[in-house]
Design goal:
about 290 residues; mainly alpha; 14 helices; globular
Length: about 290
């Protein structure tokens, strides 16, 4: 009875592997192949280009600037989300009245569609009737009628704030799940030895949460590097390209200029950047002191 069951177990993974191949592997290989071609829908050029698209990418100042903004966006948002998500998870791990409903409410920003959420934030930051500018004006911190989404620095920061608001609950949920796995005996042992809250956090909570932090931060870094819908609805990459990430530039290259081959090279570059960032962050966080 045991032998046949063990031999058939690997075959049970075949449907899942087929789905992964159809959804991930085949499109990825197709994108790599397209990146080696010269396909231009406007000029009707077509043919094998070899590494010409990648050579152009290496000298494309707009692409390099967009990649830098993608890295900057991830570098600004992910650490804030990690700190806020950890704080929120620690708060919701403590028993108190109404904890269950608060956990449910916390997920609302995460489950909202990004496009709908971005439209709401566009209204919040609107220069004429947005509550953000009105509150700052009432507090004497800014003038009325400031175009927050019309200035390069403020537009970038507003987009980052919207992303932090939406995705912090994701980090909190991952870390909250990790907190549930930590044995209470470890905290009791620290208390017996005279350790306070900081010692419990430093020597028990944080080390045992490291794998969960690696998962949450890696996922968020990958998503932040490839962010599109939020920025497209909120700023469309403006003003003056201040919020144009590599994903937005890729969209422009393919759907506005019709350059399928070069757009595929940008896709491969973006995917490689996301993969390296995810693997690097995961290895860095998991590494023991």
């Amino acid at each position: 009875m045991t032998g046949p069951r063990d031999r058939s177990a690997p075959w049970m993974a075949v449907p899942a592997l087929a789905v992964v191949a159809a959804v991930v592997l085949v499109p990825s290989l197709l994108a790599v192949w397209r990146s080696l071609e010269r396909r231009d829908l406007v000029s009707q050029e077509a043919g094998f280009a070899g590494g010409a698209n990648y050579a152009e990418l290496a000298h494309d100042s707009r692409a390099l600037a967009s990649a830098g903004r993608s890295l900057l966006f991830a570098g600004v948002t992910v650490p804030i989300e990690a700190v806020l998500g950890l704080s929120l998870a620690l708060l919701l791990a403590v028993p108190f009245r109404g904890r269950g409903p608060m956990r449910a409410v916390m997920l609302v920003p995460w489950v909202l569609p990004s496009a709908i959420m971005a439209m709401a934030w566009a209204l919040v930051f609107h220069d004429s009737y947005g509550p953000f500018g009105d509150l700052l004006a009432r507090a004497g911190l800014a003038e009325r009628g400031v175009a927050w989404l019309g200035r390069p620095v403020s537009a970038f920061l507003c987009a980052a704030a919207a992303d932090v608001w939406k995705t912090t609950p994701f980090v909190a949920v991952i870390l909250l799940a990790g907190l549930q796995t930590i044995p209470r005996d470890l905290y009791d042992a620290i208390e017996v030895d005279g350790g306070g809250p900081w010692h419990r956090f430093r020597h028990v909570t944080l080390p045992l949460l490291r794998p969960y932090l690696a998962v949450a931060i890696s996922f968020r870094a990958i998503q932040a590097l490839g962010v599109f819908d939020l920025l497209w609805v909120l700023t469309k990459g403006g003003p003056a390209g201040a919020t144009e990430t590599l994903a937005l530039y890729l969209y422009t290259v393919v759907y506005r200029y019709g350059r399928i081959g070069y757009g595929s090279a940008l896709t491969v570059a973006l995917a490689s950047l996301m993969l390296l960032a995810g693997l690097g962050l995961s290895a860095l966080i998991r590494r023991r002191r």
